Amino acid sequence: MITARAAATFPPAGRSVATARSFVRDTLQGWGFADIIDDAVVLTSELVTNAVIHAGTSAEVLCLRSGDTVRIEVADRYPEREIPLQHSPGDMGSPDRESGRGLQLCAALAGRWGVEYSPSHKRVWFLMELPDRPVGTRSAGPSLPVALLPVTDGRVRVAVIQIDGAATVSAWNEDAGELFGHQPDQVIGKPLTDLAAWPHTPGTSTGIAEALQLSRWEGSYGIRNAAGRVVPVYASHLRVRDTDGEPSTVCLLVRDHERAVIQTPLRLPAADTGALPDSGPADPFEVFIGSPAPDDLDGLLQRTVERARDMLDADAAFLLLATDDETELEVRASTGLPSARQRFARVPVEAGPGRYGSARMPAVHEDLSVVPGAVPLLIGTGMRSVVTVPLKVEGRLTGSLGVAAESPDRYSNEEALRLQFAADRIALAVESARLGELERLRRGSLSFLVEASDLLAGTLDRDQTLALMAQMTVPTLATWCAVYTIADQASDPFLSYVLHEDEDRIDGLKELLSRIAPPDPVPTPGARVWTAPARAAQEAARGTSRRSFDPESMSVHNTASSVGGETVVLPLVARNRVIGMLTLGRPADDHFRQEILELAEDLSRRAALALDNARLYSERTAISQSLQRSLLPPQTPEIPGVEVEVIYRAAGEGNEVGGDFYDLFPIRDGAYGFAIGDVCGTGPEAAAVTGLARHALRLLAREGFSGPAVLERLNAAILDEGARSRFLTLLYGELWPQEDGSAVLKVVCAGHPLPLRLRQDGTVEAAAEPQPLLGVMDDLELYEQTVTLDPGDVLLCVTDGVTERREGSRMLGDDGLAEVLASSTGLTAGAVAARVMRAVDRFATAAPSDDMAILVMRVPGLQI
């Protein structure tokens, strides 16, 4: 039965693919299907791309929820295009073929999928199910001799605390009061996090608030008792819901050293329920079983180190996983070690002197002070004796498990054998969970990079590209990010953009980074560690502690605490040139995972190309705009006794000059020339003829030629351009203001829309006669006409972009323009131009497709 549905339709445009991905992601997130979002988004992206790009039709996306199952359908309106035929069952052909890739992904990622046809639609659907998440299951352990049972130092108290959906305490039993000294009325209604002394189990990234949302969780943390002291506890959380459907969490807590009371019982395979061969009675800690679900890697690893620590009564334990090339080990879980030895720190596989210098073999060190550096992870921790054993699967090193104690001579070969036996039993489960996590990361990375590429390709603005680079990395890949750019090979790197996941720390981070030299622009691919920010953060923290309180120093100090972790630099290389560096940082004592660094490297390559494209676009746009501005008149001169107003709009994005142009310039004392013209076409080619015409008009007019002579010589110049020539319509005139307040004009209208004269009584008439346009015939015989503008008269000159403004089959035309002008009696030149432009804009809803120029000259009325 369908319990929820969501549908959306996306137009046949490239941007629809990203919009469809966001729609599916938001829908599944709202339904609580986070585990399958990455796979569903990848499949939706491919199928919507097929619809809107390849089929060229709109795409209809439908999400249907039924229990723990989601069905997603993508339909297009191209039913004639059939799916690629399978060569054999389960065979979708070569992955390199040009078609059918979307269906290959469906076959690989979805539980079920199919294609349905109708007369008007083709619908591809796939079905996905949530992975099994067993809740509340426990298994029985073997019977044990009394001597092997855990020892307690008195009555064991188990605190039972219930937490409601708002994360506040709703129940508090008697043992909880005995353990922590708080009575029920003192804690009920308060958040459990208010009582917690530690934010999370050491060595994991799961906080208590997050743990309370999980179906099941076990681990260590601390609770403050009534006296303010921290009581270390071991807790087991189980999430349940009551008969009304309201969720809550039941927490069982014991003192940390009594953890065996509530730890998930260890399970032996059926064949091993008795004693182990040749080893006497079975020790419960001899067998490691990962109680968490197989894909819960962090829980499995943390549970493993907890068990290892208990098994050998150690002060600390740690587990490291090997990198793919088996040259380094990465810390993934630990207990009892300081934070500096925590997750994702790396140590080499081959390290230290002596016989046991490799993690590939079991090793026992009775006293680390004798062989300093034998276990790099434990340097400076106070641990003296340690035993480490490898985790191997089919002979390949997959990790290392170790336990350590603060006193020397605690471990022998017997303990090493016990730990190795346990490691051998858990190695396959750990490797399986690691591969599952790696696969999920790769799928998530694919979705992340697809969306990042779409975002970066969607802009050519440099500042917006920088902002996108930072916003995609924070907080997904890093806690903070800084982007350095390099203008050219002779320039030093410049700090261009800084972002921190805490906005209040951005200014402090920028101040801190400005105090240190930027990283070297090394073109070597891959991430390299940059230690300067961590050193600067430590110096800033020490300096702040010595100074008296002031807001600026405290801001730097707070920022320093979040910059003290690992910092890496990735080069931004585009077209074989380093154009900048992408710097990523983590908080104090934190390290980057290798998978995150590889993802950041992929992102940096895409971001570098996008940034360089934005740079090239900005440079070419600046050059184009500079050249275009040189084609416009530098300024409009003041003409005594005549008001002048000009409005100019060039068609096309980024164009400031097109095929239409205007000019108004002094010829000699008391005489002014004016022109308005239209070159055939738009864009740069038309703009080139515009420059020729405008400069030639000024030169010829100032040489004393009459209007017809000026245009005849301009016509010859245009024809001399040969194949590059374009025909030109032009209205050219000369104006002489008169002492009586009027103005005399001599005009030549060469194929251009006729100028319109508005008299004071509201009548509108053409002020010239049409003559042949320029750039077509060799021999032109042009003549000029004299027009006298009386006080209050207006002369309106426009290009055909105004009169040919269209809305469907309707056109503004000469008559429409005359009506607008007739309603402008008594207005100033600026008001007349604005009214005409407003009428043009309102005539049609679509953006203008042609250049437009409006030139208005008005002789003011006589002052009485």
UniProtKB/TrEMBL annotation:
GO function term, MF aspect, one: phosphatase activity
Taxonomy, superkingdom: Bacteria
Pfam family for this entry, one: HATPase_c_2
Domain PAS: 160-190
Region called Disordered, residue ranges: 541-560
Keywords attached to this entry: Hydrolase
Name assigned to this protein: PAS domain-containing protein
The organism of origin for this protein: Streptomyces uncialis
